[in-house]
Amino acid sequence: FALHPQYLSLHEWVGTESFAKVKSKFVLLEALPETDFGDVGRVKMEFLLDVYLENRFSANIADYGLFCEKSSFWLDAYASDFSAHPPFSADILKEKTVEAECLAEFARLLQFHLHRQLLEVGREASRRGVMLKGDLPYGVSRCSLETIQNKMVFSDATDIGVPPDCYSPLGHNWGLAAYSRGDKMKYTNEWWRLRLEHFSHYFDACRLDHVYGFFRTWEIPRKHGLAALGHFSPSYPLKSSELVSLGFNVIKQYTVPHFDNHFIEEKEREGLHVRDFLKIDSNGDWVFVYDLVDL
Questions:
Q1: With contact defined as beta carbons under 8 Å apart, do 153 and 186 qualify?
Q2: How far apart are the first and last CA of the chain?
Q3: Which of 32, 50, 159, 196 is most buried when burial is the number of CB atoms within 10 A of its CB?
Q4: What distances in angstroms separate CA 272 from CA 170, 220, 246, 277, one per listed residue?
Q5: 293 pLDDT more than 70
Q6: Backbone torsions φ then ψ of 151, nearest 5 degrees
Q7: What is the pLDDT of residues 212-271, one digit of tens each?
Q8: How far is the C-alpha of 130 from the C-alpha of 137, rounded, in Å?
């Protein structure tokens, strides 16, 4: 829900004393052949904090109050987290004597100005006959405030990724939180309704990235981590009788990983101690000592 401070335009505060102090830094950053996001973000945030401490970061009280009221379901948590984990060094906060309450208010004002500017961009685009289309990803980072605050929406047990394919033989774990399903689906649906409603304030159309995730995702148990050990969710297993009817008479051959002596010898030449976790079964094949499900 929060907008990234990197996108806030500074044109409204170029006449402040704070801008005069950092203008030379911005000139150097703009001269770089490629954007240095780390330094741009650091200089920008330190400048905006100075503007706030100058009492020049104020807003229309009525508009600001309405924004805080309508956005409280996510803004309060954002402000609290911002004050607990500020994007400033301890030395800067000590030098400027900034308290946690000030940081929380600064975070709210920061989001308000981002909200106000993006709305104005949309209005100007509309006046020029341009429609804005936003890109909304299906996945949300496991480390994000969203997953921490919405325990009923996201699963603690699984992450989202992709299965093994021609591009990655082991698949890929994106580290994105899987959504809750089953009886918790109502919480997921409500969260998405709020997210889309919030998105609609700024954009005329929405592109849902990885939209197929609403129908099926590759979920990886967090205790495994390896994408190859994931599974589709929802998934509908085939019965043994169905496999036999399709001509798969030796079911175990296709459902239990097994290896021949050639494979073992090849891996040992590579320096891998594969015998440490393999054993020979009754058919003379090498199989895992432990069931993968129990790992």
A1: no
A2: 37
A3: 159
A4: 18, 25, 37, 11
A5: no
A6: -60, -30
A7: 888 889 999 998 888 998 999 888 777 878 878 888 776 676 677 778 888 888 888 888
A8: 23
